[in-house]
Amino acid sequence: MTSLSHPDLAGALSGRARQMTASTIREVLKLTQQPDIISFAGGLPAAELLPVEAVREATGAVLDRYGSAALQYGATEGHVPLRQWIADRAGITPAHVQIVTGSQQGLDLLGKILIDEGDTVLVESPTYLGALQSFQPYGPRYVQMPTDDDGIDVDALAEMLQHTRAKLLYAIPNFQNPTGRTLSLERRRRLVELTAEHGILVLEDDPYGELRFRGEALPSLYALALEMGLTPDTSHIIYSGSFSKVLAPGLRDAWVQAAPPITEKLVQAKQGADLHTPTLNQMIITELLPTLRQQIARTVGLYRERADVMVRAMQAAFPADVRYTTPEGGMFLWVTLPSADVDTTALMVRAVERKVAYVPGAAFYALGGGHNTMRLNFTAASPEKIVQGIEALAATIREAGESGAAASTPVVV
């Protein structure tokens, strides 16, 4: 039998594909599949809060009302009643709203329509690694903005912009992923002004904004821009919202609100990606909107309790020189170990041996760094498991401090 030759499959990949990398979070989660692992690694909502019965009832109601239309192709822009609800909340029109299949798709499509190779993209330091993963194939040049406990250091950014020309600024103002920090109101106003002055588009990623359990709610950058005289047709702020963290991530429903030149191109990009977000899922979400406030209230109450448990456990168990954030909402907090020589990626091996997992912080830096940091999620584990996991993590940290810096052995996944 003749043996067929075959092409070099790896060599056939595009340059863009070769720039793609695996998600560190997804890789770390492979380590946590054993049932005895206490995972602070994922960004998972509390499983017991997912509205299984409500979704079951909503699905029946949708099928009764819409019949086969709920299972049919739909408009790329999204289900009109859902877009109208989003628009009404923001004081805009449905023409400014594009439904996407999860906010991660929104990031990818926005990268596709906004970023040319070599464009400068400003990102927080650290920032959400999923955004870096989405943007990277489009060839941006990242510039990291300095941050502190109040989020982006806008004064430092103003200095940077005297000699840096940027196309896009990506930020998570509310309960930032990974740090849990919130951008102050004063800085929000200044950021809107500064970016408008320099002609920089701003992508405001806000999947956690509804999950505030302490302090006063702050206006979005998008809302501030409208308050300050811009219109929905002229605003340079692009807002990304999601139902994943407040309702059900498995339904994969999110949205982008922006000026028509942006949403019109999003429609075209989405048509090439998946035609439209699943019609049935959008209709289910719309059916659940009357109960959304109650669902958010339940979620916020549980997350407040679990965040407080984690912080108290860290106060009791962590070495005194370990620093960590105390979030006012969201799903994460950020830990910084005292020695820059400790590598939390290598330390993961020891932590998993003690049946606890986290996400190493280095993955959240666009230009490297953060090797002595880690992100912890407080929403997915019970209070008892949180205390147990923090005690195990504290023992791992103490061991690393006693034996010197953790070796740079890579984590095998």
TrEMBL record:
It comes from the Bacteria. Residues 49-392 form the Aminotransferase class I/classII large domain. It holds the Pfam family Aminotran_1_2. Gene3D superfamilies: Aspartate Aminotransferase, domain 1, Type I PLP-dependent aspartate aminotransferase-like (Major domain). Keywords: Aminotransferase, Pyridoxal phosphate, Transferase. Its cofactor is pyridoxal 5'-phosphate. GO terms for molecular function: transaminase activity. This is PLP-dependent aminotransferase family protein.
